[in-house]
């Protein structure tokens, strides 16, 4: 059986940053990726997706995002950047190799891939991140709704919704951006449990991410503080202006779905063609189940990305893994270095 010192599962932003950190410690990692090309979830986001962080705050360690550092990169620019980044790493990158299971084996692990291949690894980093599994919440009547139900993970463009009545569920950045785009082709409402928490893209001449880094909020271990507050929706003025026209509009979460009808909190009932769920993601770590690394809900038991139950196992790319920026392009490298200091001591 093939033996390696480190296996990284996933070749998205978290996995690539981990491979870079391994190189800096003198290790050539094995990187296993399900897709045919590196890039993680980025190639599957909607066509018009634009980063809310400028290019200067959107790079992985060791290589800045090319071009104007003040611009806001598009989805395809990020995909191209990640694939170029991958090509520069000293890593054994194997695409089209989904990991089916990870099992403990003495002081290390045995990984089995989709084609039945097996590899023994001294350490493992699960870098499939927190955007692998679209979250479908238990909305009242959702299972009986007979219209179209689509998560933003599968949304691409507004054309298929032309002329429809559409409800977007979720008041975060993606929900607002998708609702505003859809309004160019459909009649759209954004349904959320709380009002949209707008925050300015720029303040006192600086992008908000400059302020995050300058004040230390970007890296501070303040998960509980961030989670208690509303989800900030970063806006340069365009999205508030779009909602100001009345299409899209924002409404309190509906109370019931039935057939193709939605009942709003004020008792109003109307026909709806499509629901778009901008309801976030959950980690997809089923392959770790044999190790005992997961809790009853399938979430990782860890502290700062180091498994609390399985020696030699780490994580990179989880939301709020160590800080607000842990699941971002600018933050995964910092967490990768932290995790590998523990998993690869003495290197």
Automatic annotation (TrEMBL):
Pfam families: Pyr_redox_3. GO terms for molecular function: flavin adenine dinucleotide binding; monooxygenase activity; NADP binding. Coiled coil: none annotated. Transmembrane segments: none annotated. Keywords: Oxidoreductase. This is Putative flavoprotein involved in K+ transport. It comes from Nocardiopsis metallicus.
């Amino acid at each position: 059986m093939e033996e390696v010192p480190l296996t990284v599962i996933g070749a998205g932003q978290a996995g690539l940053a981990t491979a870079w950190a391994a190189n800096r410690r003198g290790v050539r990692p094995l990187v296993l990726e399900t897709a045919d090309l590196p890039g993680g979830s980025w190639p599957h986001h909607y066509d018009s997706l634009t980063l809310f962080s400028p290019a200067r705050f959107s790079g992985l360690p060791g290589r800045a995002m090319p071009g104007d550092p003040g611009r806001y990169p598009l989805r395809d620019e990020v995909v191209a950047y990640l694939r170029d980044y991958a090509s520069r790493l000293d890593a054994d990158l194997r695409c089209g190799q989904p990991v089916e299971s990870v099992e403990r084996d003495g002081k290390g692990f045995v990984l089995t891939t989709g084609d039945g291949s097996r590899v023994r690894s001294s350490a493992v980093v699960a870098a499939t991140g927190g955007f692998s599994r679209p979250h479908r919440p238990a909305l009242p009547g959702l299972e009986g709704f007979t219209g179209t139900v689509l998560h933003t993970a599968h949304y691409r463009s507004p054309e298929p919704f032309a002329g429809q009545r559409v409800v977007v569920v979720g008041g975060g950045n993606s929900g607002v951006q998708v609702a505003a785009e859809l309004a160019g082709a459909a009649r759209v409402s954004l349904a959320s449990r709380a009002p949209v928490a707008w925050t300015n893209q720029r303040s006192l001449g600086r992008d908000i991410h400059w302020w995050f880094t300058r004040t230390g909020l970007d890296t501070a271990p303040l998960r509980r503080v961030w989670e208690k507050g509303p989800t900030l929706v970063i806006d340069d003025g365009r999205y508030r202006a779009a909602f100001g026209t009345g299409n899209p509009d924002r409404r309190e979460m509906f109370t019931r779905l039935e057939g193709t009808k939605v009942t709003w909190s004020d008792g109003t009932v109307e026909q709806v063609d499509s629901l778009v769920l901008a309801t976030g993601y959950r980690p997809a770590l089923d392959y770790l189940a044999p190790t005992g690394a997961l809790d009853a809900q399938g979430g990782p038991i860890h502290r700062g990305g180091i498994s609390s139950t399985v020696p030699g196992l780490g994580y990179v790319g989880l939301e709020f893994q160590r800080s607000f920026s842990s699941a971002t392009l600018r933050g995964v490298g910092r967490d990768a270095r932290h995790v590998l200091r523990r998993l690869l001591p003495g290197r």
